[in-house]
């Protein structure tokens, strides 16, 4: 439980605390008012979104298709922070964590100038696209019980920098060229304004790097490897979507593999129309980029040519529903499918992993060596089918065999609501959801915490 300790008011602590009263709890009435307004806005946005998707029918960027949601404007949160400066005490948030589960983990969230984070939200895609876990985790932490306003009792320090929100007008994908300088500047800021970075060398500081190759911040693997992880991050903990089971320069850092972001609201909406145990009239589904003649990009081919092989071998096979064009309503197709192919792209991971699990379609993972997200909370080996890249030509046979033997047992485990919950980032953390799982994995790394080391050091010397 988040219990505020009363401490002697040292001027520095007070300064730090005041800086961090960022997202205060509001009086109940104002809060419920805000909620009503928020819900109404959400409802309206969804209606608009689905109405629009019926009209448009196809969207140039389905994985990035933005669902309009709202957020507290920067101005409002500033105003609320100010109001809180005057409030004598922070009312505790509603309890979320069962006592003991997160073992009293405490996370301090830096209040960085808006140019590092909230300014980017002016583009509403920033909080909804597949790399938006950087926004979602930040938001969830701000209202979570593990958040502490007292950096002296924190096990970990979360540094909220949004690096994936500078969308290129040419192709709609994030331009992440500025990621290194933005993060370096944020570290410069916190290490000069606060003492906590220097005392641990950043080892108890946590960053999100949700892009293709984690903290290497480049879309192409060779360039990512050549650039490497910035020196400044090498001692910290990175929450990253990228993960492989072998040694790779882009994960040569303490890390937690996290799921890509998929808007929970969009999934709930799909599930309302097509429940997981409903009829599934598509046997094997894939929609996305499948190049017939993939280009040789400095020795590498998109998807290791796996998607090309799938297209060439199974296009026209009646069991397979393969589409190369983008379509905004693709989630409803996933909900209609028994097997959903999740082949690698440039990077091994894909938002399809999350969408398939959430919509009850058995993920067929074709990405050699992938390290899947949140292994402690999601039993991937029980709820998915793995196919080696070189076996992709036998996909039909392999899936037939699964269908004839263990499909219903896989589905039963897949449809356990805990699997879906574990992969979704809610704007307010819920027990068992993705942020919760991330915190659980962080709590396993508490030996990195300066505070922890000092406390256990004292215990040692007491003995
Ligand atoms: C956004 O990305 C473009 C490259 O596509 C770059 O020129 C620009 O400086 C970036 N903007 C910021 C604020 O980093
Ligand atoms: C942390 O170390 C840097 C580099 O040595 C120094 O410039 C900075 O002032 C230090 N920060 C604090 C708060 O002492
Ligand atoms: C791809 O291009 C590289 C040079 O960039 C070349 O060495 C390699 O042989 C090519 N691979 C294939 C399969 O064409
Ligand atoms: C399902 O069966 C396949 C092939 O018979 C096997 O490789 C796989 O491990 C089984 N999966 C589960 C989750 O039982």
TrEMBL record:
Which organism's genome codes for this protein? Acacia crassicarpa (northern wattle)
Q: Name one GO biological process term.
A: glucuronoxylan biosynthetic process
Places the protein is found: Golgi apparatus membrane
Instruction: List, alphabetically, the GO terms of the cellular component aspect.
Output: Golgi membrane
Q: Which Pfam families match?
A: Exostosin_GT47 (PF03016)
Q: What kind of membrane protein is this, topologically? A: Single-pass type II membrane protein
Transmembrane region positions?
40-57
As given in the record, the signal peptide range reads none
Exostosin GT47 domain boundaries: 103-401
Assigned keywords, A-Z: Glycosyltransferase, Golgi apparatus, Membrane, Signal-anchor, Transferase, Transmembrane, Transmembrane helix
The name on file for this protein is Exostosin GT47 domain-containing protein
Report the family membership: Belongs to the glycosyltransferase 47 family.
Any one GO molecular function term: glycosyltransferase activity
Q: What is its main location?
A: Golgi
């Amino acid at each position: 439980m988040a219990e505020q300790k009363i401490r002697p008011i040292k001027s520095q602590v007070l300064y730090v605390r005041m800086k961090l009263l960022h997202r205060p709890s509001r009086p109940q009435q104002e809060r419920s008012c805000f909620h009503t307004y928020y819900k109404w806005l959400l409802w309206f946005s969804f209606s608009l979104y689905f109405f629009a998707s019926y009209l448009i029918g196809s969207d140039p960027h389905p994985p990035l298709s933005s669902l309009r949601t709202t957020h507290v404007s920067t101005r409002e949160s500033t105003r609320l922070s100010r109001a809180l400066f005057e409030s004598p005490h922070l009312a505790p948030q509603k309890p979320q964590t069962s006592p003991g589960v997160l073992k009293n983990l405490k996370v301090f969230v830096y209040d960085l100038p808006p140019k590092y984070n909230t300014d980017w939200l002016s583009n509403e895609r920033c909080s909804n696209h597949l790399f938006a876990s950087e926004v979602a985790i930040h938001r969830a932490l701000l209202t979570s019980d593990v958040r502490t306003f007292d950096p002296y009792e924190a096990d970990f320090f979360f540094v909220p920098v949004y690096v994936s929100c500078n969308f290129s007008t040419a192709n709609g994908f994030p331009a992440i060229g500025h990621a290194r300088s933005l993060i370096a500047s944020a570290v410069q800021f916190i290490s000069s304004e606060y003492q906590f970075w220097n005392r641990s060398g950043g080892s108890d500081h946590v960053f999100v790097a949700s892009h293709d190759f984690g903290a290497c911040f480049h879309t192409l693997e060779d360039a990512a490897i050549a650039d490497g992880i910035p020196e400044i991050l090498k001692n910290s903990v990175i929450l990253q979507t990228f993960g492989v089971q072998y040694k790779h320069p882009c994960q040569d850092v303490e890390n937690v593999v996290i799921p890509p972001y998929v808007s929970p609201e969009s999934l709930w909406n799909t599930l309302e129309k097509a429940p997981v145990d409903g009829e599934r009239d598509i046997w094997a589904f894939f929609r996305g980029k499948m190049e017939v003649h993939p280009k040789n990009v400095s020795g590498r081919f998109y998807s290791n040519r796996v998607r090309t092989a799938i297209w060439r071998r199974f296009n026209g096979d009646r069991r397979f529903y393969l589409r190369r064009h983008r379509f905004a309503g693709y989630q409803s197709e996933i909900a209609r499918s028994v097997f959903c192919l999740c082949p690698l792209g440039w990077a091994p991971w894909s938002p399809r992993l999350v969408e398939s699990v959430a919509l009850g379609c058995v993920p067929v993972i074709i990405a050699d060596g992938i390290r899947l997200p949140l292994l402690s909370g999601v039993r991937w080996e029980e709820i998915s089918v793995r196919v080696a890249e070189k076996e992709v030509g036998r996909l039909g046979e392999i899936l037939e065999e699964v269908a004839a033997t263990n499909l219903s047992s896989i589905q039963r485990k897949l449809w356990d609501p805990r699997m879906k919950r574990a992969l979704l980032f809610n704007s307010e953390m819920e027990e068992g959801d993705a942020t919760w799982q991330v915190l659980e994995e962080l709590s396993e790394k508490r030996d990195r915490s300066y505070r922890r080391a000092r406390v256990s050091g004292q215990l040692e010397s007491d003995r």
